[in-house]
Amino acid sequence: MLKMKKILLCLLVGASFISQSCINDNEDPVAVTPTDGAVFSPNVGGAAQPNQVWFDLGTNTEVLTNRTNWDLALYAGTSFKVVLNSSIMMAAGKIPNATNIDLVKQADVTALMEQVQVANFNPANVTYIDDVNGNFPSGYTAIEEVKPTESENAIYLVNMGKEIFKGTIANGSVATGGDSRGWMKVQVVRSGDSYKVKYAELNDATHKELTIPKNPAYNYNFISLKKNTEVLVQPEKKKWDICFTVFTNTIAGAGSYIYADFVISNNLGGVGAYEVRITAPASGVEAFNNFKASDIDQSKFMYNDQRIIGANWRNPVGANGLEVYGDRFYIIKDAEGYYFKLRFTRLTSASGERGRPQFEYKPL
What we know:
Elements: H1 2-26, E1 38-40, E2 51-56, E3 61-66, E4 72-75, E5 82-84, E6 91-94, H2 110-113, E7 156-159, E8 183-191, E9 194-200, E10 208-213, E11 220-224, E12 229-231, E13 242-251, E14 255-265, E15 272-277, H3 284-290, E16 314-315, E17 323-324, E18 328-333, E19 339-348, E20 354-363
Antiparallel strand pairs: 1-20, 2-3, 2-13, 4-5, 4-11, 6-7, 7-8, 8-9, 9-10, 11-12, 13-14, 15-18, 16-17, 18-19, 19-20
Protein name: HmuY protein
Organism: Chryseobacterium piperi
Signal peptide: 1-21
């Protein structure tokens, strides 16, 4: 009997060891991408391109934001940085010698209004927009980093940009902006670990205020000065990878310029990307299909520029009309560390309407 008990005890110990070994093996499983990829048509909304489309590659999901739903993005990290809504051509310039927001009148900023513009082919206007690389919080912002001492924070003239165009748009064309959204005077200060935004119409003798605590689950807290409220725009910082949007970019020697069909990456959330170009006579589609994980070049990933895809994927003035470049595709490392290959398959709808793109992506 004693011998039998020893045998049973050994079996139990062995079984426990095997069971524990299995548990340890499964505590750190190999990461498996939660999607097989897809062919996707983001809902940009047509030729006026009213929507920003925030897309998560890992879950094949999109979140839509009307471009005019927000005005300022308040960085939710350790720094205090304010970013303008470049999709609607916003700009901001410091009002000289202004110390009291309630005393500023339109007559005081008439000359400055001529300068604080986007896409007027003045090379100097880049001063009034944010770093187009999106390399925040270190990148330049038109509204300077918010200082701890309230009186050291300037009052800004803010060009509120353009409304979504509401008229008829010729087939194959785009309209990136409609009527002017007007002007505001704005001062942003700190309130503990929160932002306090003071703002008003130019001739108002009193101002409104919004106090916004930082939410570290997101890249930014977004506010609408027009609606006097905080608004939800981007998904959480690890839950989107690329965004289709109208975008204020720069052209060397010409200053700021507005682009349709633009794609930015979530570099602030850790997304990296690079472009693969294929030389003739090789086929871009064949190269895309054959590209595998072992072909990834880690040295090429860019994490400090949101414009790696940008407008580089399409040609709006091609000899044969609008076209998607067939000689390139993109490698993306998403916010969660998964790798994907992505190529664009369409710029317009079947009838030729802009703002109806399509892309294909697959995990690596």
